[in-house]
UniProtKB/TrEMBL annotation:
It holds the Pfam family Glyco_transf_92. GO terms for molecular function: glycosyltransferase activity. The keyword Hydrolase does not apply. Its EC number is 2.4.1.-. Keywords: Glycosyltransferase, Membrane, Transferase, Transmembrane, Transmembrane helix. This is Glycosyltransferase family 92 protein. InterPro entries: Glyco_transf_92, GTase_92. Belongs to the glycosyltransferase 92 family. It is found in: Membrane. PANTHER family: GLYCOSYLTRANSFERASE FAMILY 92 PROTEIN. It is an enzyme of class 2 (transferase).
Length: 491
């Protein structure tokens, strides 16, 4: 079917020159991304979950993680028409919403919720008589462990050493990693898949947003949302495990927490809530650390790794652990809809933030950009826990599949210095060098990432769909997500 081009006039003007007419499709107008109003707000539906029962959402609830163009009108607390159907009944409900994110981005993560018919078999969005059916999943009611650690989306992932550290630490203290992947070195992906088979982690897709067809103009969503919609992934994880987990932590792969006072996360978190029963979340600061990476899996050692860990005085803005019945959505560090007075802050321990791993024989150029002082380890890591993790690692090394994968893992950094330099130029120079803020939406989606012949990448992919033209919202979504070996290493 041929694409119909529709022209739209804009009554806006900025300065003496009137704005040009708008055409359908992708709009190139970077200087006016935060001021130019469009005919509709385009909405990307990341996921939708159905809850037959929910402690916080009520019975027969539907909750959606979305990305919404926020400029056309105030989308804070916007409402959406949701239609739920089963074999005998259809019911229209008003879905209320809340947004997360930063005001300097055109698109913002949002969570919308409504209650509908029981045993729902079809969910539709409706506006002015126009409807579109959207895919949904059943929310989880069981979890591998009572503590789920939601790991933000990984792209051009190659730091298998940090993964090895995190996965064995989490397992030791009773946590289960739910990891979102956009792109990852093939051998590293195979390593993760083996850990998934062993029950240590769950892998999930994190695809790039694409609008398959529009009758109205739109700004590119991936370039105009904060950090690849990291907050949206964390909200998706929250919605997945809302009724299944006792506690949910929202961490990056390089955010590693060693409990200080109790042998497990479950006991540690429960003790913190016992001290402040009304808390909506517990916030752990993140202390910067560096360590020397093993070059091969055979030489990877927890004893050596912990010996090489060095702490900085710098403690960055933290990450939260939540009781899921008290959180419905989240931003990167915490929910912007949370009452700060009910957020419990922990001074000690802090998260071991290993954003700056060092190569044994590499040039470590990252340290020339990011100048920071490091000294002796300033966290409590018990020797018997290190011994237990070393033994667990030894068991994995004996698995034949792991042995086959080991020699294919990269021994040197390739993407880390490229990504770090791009992120530094795009945003972090202000944070690290205390320069006057000059950046808008925190995003580095346009970073150029070269491809490598010797290391193929696995990339998440899906079938993309756009709903019919609807006002004030037009909806886009995906189905049938899968792993692709044909896209390459991109964000």
């Amino acid at each position: 079917m041929a694409k119909t081009e529709v022209n739209f006039k804009s009554g806006e003007s900025i300065g003496p020159e009137p704005l040009p007419e708008l055409k359908s499709g992708l709009l190139e107008d970077p200087t006016r991304r935060l001021t130019r109003k469009l005919p509709v707000s385009h909405v990307w539906i990341t996921s939708a979950y159905y809850y037959p029962t929910s402690k916080s959402l009520g019975d027969n609830a539907v909750a959606m993680a979305m990305v919404v163009d926020t400029i056309n009108f105030n989308v804070n607390n916007a409402t959406y028409n949701l239609i739920g159907s089963n074999s005998t009944h259809t019911e229209t409900s008003i879905a209320t919403s809340q947004t997360e994110g930063v005001p300097t981005c055109r698109y913002a993560p949002a969570m919308a919720r409504a209650n509908t018919v029981e045993n729902v078999t079809k969910v539709e969005m409706e506006s002015n008589g126009v409807k579109v059916e959207i895919p949904f999943k059943m929310a989880r009611y069981t979890a591998p462990k009572p503590v789920i650690i939601c790991i933000s989306p990984q792209f051009v992932a190659e730091q298998w050493q940090i993964f090895m550290m995190h996965v064995h630490v989490a397992n030791r203290f009773g946590g289960h990693l739910h990891i979102y992947l956009t792109s990852i070195i093939e051998s590293f992906f195979e390593l993760m898949k083996e850990y998934e088979r062993q029950g240590y982690i769950t892998l999930d897709y994190w695809i790039r947003m694409k609008f398959q067809h529009t009758q109205t103009p739109y700004f590119e969503p991936n370039e105009n949302i904060e950090w690849r919609n990291q907050a949206g992934a964390q909200t998706d994880c929250l919605l997945q495990y809302k009724e299944a987990a006792e506690y949910i932590a929202f961490f990056d792969m390089d955010d590693i927490l060693f409990p200080k006072n109790y042998p497990t996360y479950l006991e540690e978190f429960s003790a913190e809530w016992a001290l402040q029963p009304g808390a909506t979340s517990v916030l752990y600061g993140r202390r910067e650390h560096e360590f020397v990476k093993a070059e091969t899996l055979s030489e990877f050692s927890f004893i050596d790794l912990i010996k090489s860990l060095r702490s900085s005085p710098t403690v960055k803005r933290g990450k939260v652990v939540v009781k899921p019945d008290r959180y419905n959505s989240t931003w990167i560090h915490y929910s912007n809809n949370e009452n700060e007075a009910t957020r419990r802050s922990i001074d000690n321990p802090t998260i071991v933030h290993v954003q700056r791993p060092l190569q044994k024989h590499g040039n470590n150029n990252i340290t020339k950009l990011w100048k920071m002082e490091f000294g002796p380890l300033n966290e409590t890591i018990r020797a018997h826990d290190v011994t237990a993790m070393e033994e667990d690692l030894g068991r994995f090394r004996k698995i034949p599949t792991i042995s086959e994968i080991a020699h294919k893992l990269p021994s040197e950094d390739f993407y880390l210095p490229i990504v770090f330099k791009c992120y530094y130029d795009a945003f972090y120079d202000n944070a690290f060098d205390h320069r006057r803020a000059k950046h808008g939406c925190p995003n580095a989606d346009t970073c150029e990432l070269p491809q490598r012949k010797e290391y193929k990448c696995v990339h998440s992919h899906a079938e993309y769909f756009s709903g019919p033209h609807m006002e004030p919202f037009t909806f886009h979504f995906s189905r049938n997500q899968f792993w692709s070996w044909n896209i390459g290493c991109y964000q």
